[in-house]
Fold this protein.
Amino acid sequence: MPAVRRLAQTQAAGGAGGAICGGLAGTARIHDSGAQLAFAVRGARHRHDDARPRHRVRRGQDQTDRPFRHAAGGRHPAQADESQTRRRAVAARAGPPHQAYGGAVRRAHYRRACGHGVGAPHTGGVLMAIGGSLSVGLIGLKAFIIQIQAFISPGLPYFSVIGLPDASLSESRERVKSACQASGFKWPDTRVTVNMSPASMPKRGASHDLAIAAGVLSAAGAIPHDSLEETIVLGEVNLDGTVLPIHGLLPIMLHAKERGIRRLIVPYGNEDESRLVPQMDVTCVRHVGELIELAGGRASYTLGVDRATVSCTVEDTPAFSGLGDMSEVVGQDHVKWALQVAAAGKHHLLMTGPPGSGKTMLASRMPSIMCPLTPEEQLEVASIRSLCGTLQHYGISDMPPFEAPHHTASTASLVGGGSGLAMPGAITRAHRGILFMDEAPEFSARTLQTLREPMESGYVALSRTKGTTYYPAMFQMVMAANPCPCGYAYGNGERCVCKEKDRIRYFARLSGPILDRIDIQVEVPPVPCIASAPTRDSIGSHVMQQQVIAARAAAGERYSKYGWGCNAEVPGSWMRANTSVKALELANRALASHRLSLRGVDRAMRLAWTLADLAGKTSPGPDEMSQGIMLRARMS
């Protein structure tokens, strides 16, 4: 038959006849020892797929429950291998198989079958190498602790920094890797991951380079793991391993002192700045190798004398020391008196006059008659300068800051700005001091309008993509302006060449809300004559400053239980409740005649109290109130 294929020759011991089992539904198997034939039937199954059910591993079923095939597997017994024998032995130790297991029962059964105890640790894992260090981040002047962890794991060589780093911080990977190799450290040929927590806070700047290097060195075992516990590490590293100075060290140290962390490792270039905060254990380093040796490790590096890091020395005397003296100003005695009143009460001031009348000269000498800064105020000003990187130029001084931006300055440069997180502007740098805006009408209208809120609140809030930054802005505004574009619209105006609409448009750039916040508006006329030598009646800055200090002391004693320091900080409700009735009558007349607004009346009363303090009186009378109202309008 063509459907029958002969598989073997007929043997002598067997017969030609034999029983055929299995039928035509599958593969025919010959059970006798005679001639064996196999019928090729359509749909025939594999020779091992008989009537028994096929055994597969189902969900929830252990591998040991699977029936083992015969060692020979239907072949010659010599073809059996040792793995089948081992699997039988494992199944014998595991006990009778079950058809279904829970997750925990199945794993425990498999551990017993493999010779492990229940709950024994997995011996095939990788030992994690994690090192840590501490750093401090800044969002404005607000500091927060950053915990840095470095993890060295198997994998392809790669170095990553995670935890919301900015572009400059992401570039620290190459700086840190090169600096560690320059210190004799062999960089791991595996994956290195550095995490900076809290991960939700944005981190920026290169001041965390040294802390990242310390974490990697600790993870690699180059330094002991516990050598930098409760230690803040700060510094920017160069490719050759040198440690460069950073900005903002002073507010960082003040925050560390509040948190109870006394030990810091900072760049050698910030040594003078690090001495400003007492009761702190500060160690200065020049090279990453010095950090390794300080932590108890071994390093190999070279630091030449000529390649020492640049030092940010904090000078004892500020760079802006040539303020001059009020006695150098010729004439303008009434303007000097107005400046003294403004300095005693921290009042905003506007001077208008023709070119060359002495407006800029008077404003630049105003810090010389102001009260010296207290130690707390000095730290506030120094913290801002440290953040801006200008502390080494100004130093620590009791002289109030003086900022004079150009009239072409942008809004961001004046109030603060920048991408990601905003940096401080001129109004923050003038905190506790003078913000002098020369040629005020030449500033853009948008820039002038942004000063309205900080003049009232004493701080500025800047919102950017990565968060909102708050900066202090308790400045004293001093403006100078010409009466018209040509500057000669004074007196009878015979020298003025401007049209009437040009004069109106020029001074209208100072809007009503801005002028309403200016306490004193005074005109500075041209000087009619000069003398060959200073007159004896000319008062110097030292005498004017002593009078201002006495007036401020009287106000501070009066407001000590309220927490106010000067008359400009006193609310109008207290002024109205403690001012005499006769003085209030003058204020009500000015309010009824629309000469002053309600805010203007409050500011006029503050001026009256400052005039009373300068005169040595306990409260203002009608004369002081009249002078205060007169100072609110332009006076000649």
